[in-house]
Amino acid sequence: MDLVIPKIDVVSLGPELILSIAAIFVLLVSVFLPKGRKDPAAYLSLLGIFFAFVSSIFLWGNPRYSFNNMILVDNFALFFNSIFLIAAGLSILMSVNYLEEQEMSHGEFYALILFATVGMMFMAAGSNLITIFLGLETMSISIYVLAGFFRRSNKSNESALKYLLLGAFSSAFLLYGIAMMYGATGTTDLKGISEYLSKAAYLKDPMLLAGMGLLLVGFGFKIASVPFHMWTPDVYEGAPTSITAFMSVGVKAAAFAAFVRVFLYSLWNLQPDWNHVLWILAVLTMTLGNVVAISQNNIKRMLAYSSIAHAGYIMIGMVASSELGTSGILFYMLAYAFMNLGAFGVIILYGRKGEENLDINDYSGMGFKYPGLALLMTVFMFSLAGIPPTAGFVGKFYIFSAAIKSGYIWLAIIGVMNSLVSVYYYLRITVMMYMKEPVKEFAGLKWSPSMAIALIIAVIGTLLIGIFPSPYLDLARQSVQLFM
Amino acid sequence: MLDYVWLVPLFPIIGAIINGIFGTKLSKKTVGVVACGVIGLSFLVSVLVFFSLLQLPPESRSFEKIIYTWIAAGDLKTTVGFLVDPLSMIMMLTVSGVSFLIHIYSVGYMHDDEGFKRYFTYLNLFVFSMLVLVCANNFLMMFVGWEGVGLCSYLLIGFWYQRKEPADAGKKAFVVNRIGDYGFLLAMMLIFVTFGTLNFKEVFNIAHYNFQVGSMVITAITLLLFVGATGKSAQIPLYTWLPDAMEGPTPVSALIHAATMVTAGVYMVVRCNVLFTLAPISLTVVAIIGVVTAVFTASIALAANDIKRVLAYSTISQLGYMFLACGVGAFSAGIFHLMTHAFFKALLFLGAGSVMHAMAGELDMRKMGALKSHMPRTYWTFLIATLAIAGIFPFAGFFSKDEILWNAFQKNTVLWVLGAGAALMTAFYMFRAVFMTFHGESRVDEEVAKHLHESPSVMTSPLVVLAILSAIGGFVGIPIIKGANVFHDFLAPVTGEHLAGSAKVTLTNLAYASSTAVSSGEAVHHPVGLEVLMMAISLAIALGGLGLAYYMYIKNPSLPKRLAEKFKLLYHLICNKYFVDEIYDFLFVNPIKRGSEILWTFFDVRVVDGMVNGSGRFVEFGSSVLKRIQTGYVQNYALSILVGIGAIIAYFLFM
Q1: Between chains, do A227 and B653 touch, taking CB under 8 Å as contact?
Q2: CA gap A139, B597 in Å, rounded
Q3: Is residue A6 domain-resident?
C-alpha cells in the first residue's frame, strides 16, 4: 500500500495557525495572571486576531488547494474569515468588562473563542466534507463550553446542555449524510462530488437524495432554520450575552459558508431538487422568526427569533442560485455581523450583575437618561429592520433583488412583508427608549474603553456599509467569482 | 477655472452648516461675517469662472463638470454635475451677486432679531439651493435645487412663526408650489420615458434631431414644465401665494420673492427653449398666461396701499413680462429682463425695507409721505429703481422691457397692446408709490415721526450698488446697433437666436433708416425704423404713467378719492384683488378641507387604521399561538428536527 505524504502548505493555513498558536499562548499566559484580572489574555487574543486578519489579507486573490485537496483557500473562504474575525474580535472587546462584572474572568474564555474561530475557518475553507465536519465539531465543542461558561447560573447550564444534546443529535445526521454521499458518489471531496454529478446519467439515486437531505438538516440546524431552530431561543437566552452575540454571527456565518459551498457548488446539479425545499424553508424560517419575535419580552429571546428570521432572508439568497444572490449572502453576513454584534453590545453595557435589564420594559425612558447609548441602539435596530441608510437595508435590497432577477418574485414579496412585520418589534425598542416614561431607577453605565471601541466599530461599520455599499459589494462579488 | 465651478454652490452650504450647527456658540458678528463671506467667495468664483468661459470661442462655451454618479438604477443614470454655459453663467452671477448685497443689507436689517443665526442659516441654504438649481446639468438635480429653494422660501416666509399670518403664508406658499412641483415631476418622468435620460444636453440633442415641430409628447412635456413654472414664478393661476409671502422679512422678499427664486420658472423655460420651440402650442400658452398675468396683477397694484404688496404684485406682473418674452420666442430678452429686474426689484424691496426700518415697521403708504428729506439715500436709490422699472430711458428696465415689447409686437399686435397697457400701469403705480411715500404732505404718526432716520450705511451701501446696476445695467443689451447687444450675442449659443438679428443695422445708417421709416410710414418694410418708433412709443407710455401719477397724487391729491367714489364697484373689486383668494377658497380649499375631514374620520380611522390594526392583531395572535410550541423540553425539540428530516427526505425521494 502506497502512503502518499500530502504536501504541507503552511502558508495557506496562516490564519488558522496564528489563531491556534495565540489560543494556546493565551491558555499558558492566563495561568500566571492574577485571579479575576485576566484582561491581558483578552488583548493577547486580539493581537492574534489582528495577525490572522493580516495573513488573510495576504492570501487574498490567490486561490489554492492544499493538504491533498482537503483545504481550498479562496476569496470566498477569506471573506468569511474576515467576518469570523470581526465577530470574534468584537465579542472579545465586549467581554472584558462583562466577565469581570460577572466575576467570571478566566483566560479559557478567550482561548475557546479563538478555537471556535479556527473551527469556523476550516468550515469556510473546507473542500472536503470531512474537513467541513471537523471544522464544525471544533467550533461546536468550543461553543458548547462557552454557552455554559457561567457555570453558577442555571440558565447558562441549561443553555449549554440543550445545545450539546441537540447539537450532537444534528451532527450525527450530518455525518450520516456525509456517509451516504460517500456511498452514492464514492468520494467526500467537494470537487469530486460535483464532477460525479455532472457526469452521472441518473440523479434520482435514493441514497444520494437522502444524503443531501441529511446534509441539509445538519447545516439547517446550525443556521437555525425552521424546523431545526427550536434550540435557538433557549440557548441564546441562557448563554453569556457576548457568546450569544458571537454565536448569532460567527456560527451562523460559518454554517452558511459550508452550506453555500456544498449546495451551490458540489450539489449544483441537484439544484432543481433542493431549491424547492429551500424555498419553503426560507419562507417558514422568516415568517416564524418574525412572528414569534413579536410576542417576546426578553430582549435576548427577541434577538434570537430575529436571528432565525435573518437566516430566512439569507436563504433567499441561496434560492436565487445566482452570482448576485451568493454575493448578496456574503454582503448580508458582513452587515449582519456589525449590526447584531452592536445590538448585543448595547444589551451588555446596559445590564449589570444581578440586574441584567433583559426585559424589554427595562428600556423605557432609557433614551432620556443615556442619549448616546439609545442612539446607538436605534441605529442597530433600524439596520436590523432594514431601514436606510444602514447596512441592513442594503443587504436586504441585494438579496431581494437577486431573488427577483432569478424569477422568485413571490419569495421576494414574502421577504419584504416579513421585514415589514419585523419593523414592529425592532422599533418597539426605540419606542420604549424615547416615548415611554422610565419604570425604574437607572443604575448608571459603566463605560469601558474596550466596550466603547467595540460599539464604535459596530456603528461605523453599520453606517459605512449602508451609505457606501459598493466597495463591500465588490469584495463580495470577487469572493464568489471563481466559485460557480 | 471652469473645473472649479462646484465651489460656487459649495461655499454657501459650508456657511449654512457652520451657522446651523455652531451658530448658537458664535457671536452675531461672526455669524454675519461667515454668512456674507461665503456668498462673497461664491460670487468671486462665479466671476472667475465667467472670465474663463469668455476665453473660449462662443460656439464651444458649454462645459459640463461631472462630480460623481449619483443614482445608477437600471436605465436611470443621473450624475451630480454642473453645466457652465452663458445662460447658467448669467444666472450664477446674478444670483450670487444680488445675494451678496442682500446678505450685507440683512446684517443691518436683522440686527436686533432673536433669530439672527437661524435667519442666516436659512439664507445661505437658500443661495446654495438656488445655485444648484441654475448650475445643474440635468433635470433631477435641477429639481433638487427647485425643491430646496421652495423649502427655504417656506422657512423664511414663516420666519416669524410665532405670529399666525407668517405661518399661514408660509403654508400657503408651500401648498400652492406643490401643485406646480407636481407638474414638474410629471414632466420629468415623461422626459425620462421619452428620451431615456435626464441630462440637459442629451435631451435637447435628441429632441432637436428626432422630433418634429408640434410633436404631441413634447407639447405635453413643455406644458407640464410650464405648470411647474407657474407655481414657482407665481403666474396665473398659481400666483396667489406671492403677495402673502410678503409676511417674511423684507430682505427675504427682495432676494427670494423678487430677484432670484421666483425667476426660476423663467430660467427653466429658457433652459428648455429647445423643447418649447418644438411646441408652438405651449409657446402660445406661455405668452398668453404671461401677458394676462402682467396686466391682471398690475391692475391690482394700482389700488394697493401696502408698499410691499404693491411691489409683490409688480413682481408678478414683471414675471409675466418675462414669460411673454419666452412665449414669443425671445428667450434672451426674457433672461435680460430677469437680470435687470433682479437689480431694480431687489433695490425697490430693500428701499421699502429701509423705509419700514425708519417707520417702525409701518407698511401703509397712506401713513407715509414727505420722507424724502429724512432719508435722502433711500429716496434717490428708490427713485432710480422706479425709473428703471417704469422703463424710462436710459435706465436698465427700458432696454429689457422694450426688447420684450418689440418682440411681442412682431409676433402679434394684441400681445403688444396688452403688454403696453401693463407698462402704462407699471409706470403709474410705481410713481404713485414714490409720490405717496416720499413726496407730498407728511401723514406720518407723530410718535413715529420723532424717530425718523436714515438707515445705517451697512443697509444703504447695497442700495447704492444696486442703484448703479439699475441705472447702467441695461447698456449690455443695446438694441438696433449691430454688435452692441452684447447680452443677446452672449446668450445666442444657448437660445439659438441668430447672432445679430435681421433687424440690426450699423450706426451710420441708423438715422437715415429711422427717418424714412417714420416719414414714409412703410413700417413693415423698414423694421429698423419701426423699432425706433416702438421705442419712442414705449418711452411715451412710461412717461404717460409718470405724468398721470404726478397729476393724481401731487397736483390733485383729492382726485383719487373722488375717482374711487365714482367707480365704486371697480375700486372695490380691485381693492379686494378681484376676490381671487375667496374664489379659490370656495372652489378648492374648502371642498378639499371638507373632503379630507370625511376621509380622515371615515376612511383613515375606520378602513385604514382598521386594516392595519386588524392585521397587527392577527399577527400578534399567531405569535402567541406559535410561542406555545416552544415548550422548553429538549425531547420536543428533537422531535421537531425528526419531523423536519422526515418531511425533507420524503420530499426528495417521492417528488
Answers
A1: no
A2: 62
A3: no
